[in-house]
Amino acid sequence: MSEKTSRISGFHTWSVEDRIARVADFAGLGEGERTQLAAPSNIGAELGDHMIENFITTIAIPVGVATNLKVDGRDVLVPMATEESSVVAAVGNSARQCYESGGFTTSMSGTEMIAQIQLLDVPDPHRARLVILERQAEIAEICNACDPVLVRLGGGFRGLEVRLVDTPTGTMVVTHIIVDTRDAMGANAVNTMAERLAPDIARWTGGTTLLRILSNLADRRVVRARATWTAEAIGGEKVRDAMVAAYQFADNDPYRAATHNKGIMNGISAVVLATGNDTRAVEAGAHAYAARTGRYRSLTTWEVTAEGHLAGAIELPLAVGLVGGAVKIHPTARALLAILKPGSAEELARVIASVGLAQNFGAMKALATDGIQKGHMSLHAHNIAFAAGAVGEEVGEVARRIIAAKAINEEAAGRALADLRGQ
Ligand code: NAD
Fold first, then answer.
1. Which domains are delineated in the chain?
2. FRET label pair with 151: which of 222, 233, 241, 408, CA 20 to 30 Å apart?
3. Active site residue 176
4. The predicted structure's pLDDT at residue 3
């Protein structure tokens, strides 16, 4: 019988085999997926050579599973690919602290992407703008004819915007085609449409088209997640108020906001990568969205509820897919997606936003209480011990000694290892 709860205590103390078995049971994985997860090397040379140019090898990134998340009433175990220690633990810990108060509640604005067509050399940009807008029905037909599969699945052209962008070299007429790309991230889908449409736009307006490419500021694909942490669950009002002050710092100072949002992306990019999606697309969209008011701000908001609890919310564009790109062909990404089993790209985005909010909670709580180094450095000490040549049980012992000596560096680890071996 599989247990459908994501609340697993002490998961970090289990053996790797036991963890895989539990996750596989939770998700009802088949033999092929279990085998793929148990093989830490990910793809063979043949697939690698097919995926990118000048392929020579692969670099393995550890995948951990974040526990304790409940998203819209559903318990989920979330795979996260990251080379950074503390990230997976922070999500599980933070999610545990809001599990009893209901976990995460999410929504999404839609799955529409924007492709831009840049038009130059028009003497009368205002007229050109209207000429293009008048052709909306024709444009819809041209775009939809590019992707009958997408249209059959309920996606396709949704709308048109034409903007005048003043630049030092003149006014450019920028056409946005808005396309619902459903369960695809959609870059290829909308780029194809933009390229197909550009010659018509040039012909209708008498101008010259140049760039034809999607915008990663996917502000018609905005996902939102919120959660409440009771003051009791997080250690009292003092902690709560310190966290709100930490958020206010980030929201009002770009130097702090960059690091605050980097922490959020520690969680988000890890799930995006694990599921074979495009981390750069999501990161570009997130940071551009954070600066949408003209000032770079926090992607999250934090406030105290009428009952005195801590309420957090996150809002950002999340263009991720379940088809297309590497998602469909990377066998490990497929197996990891099978753990999550999102019913749609939207559902995946909702889980990812929840992870981002949990990550932000964890980082802010650590910073506003013990400081980040306490948790971070003890995990980091294990990496240092590894780097100094410790193996097996030596790793934990060397880490313990360099933490106790408050000297978490490779030299101290080397000395601790030599002492240990000399004993
Ligand atoms: P894609 O073209 O490989 O797949 C999308 C297509 O799959 C759709 O157009 C549709 O025809 C079909 N499809 C089948 N089932 C579908 C479903 N349920 N929902 C929607 N479509 C379905 O991939 P894509 O998503 O258009 O493009 C993603 C890739 O483009 C990523 O690899 C990304 O890295 C890359 N890319 C990104 C950028 C950027 O972000 N700036 C630019 C260029 C390319």
1. 17-51 (no CATH), 64-109+222-369 (3.90.770.10), 112-214 (3.30.70.420), 374-422 (1.10.8)
2. 222
3. no
4. 57
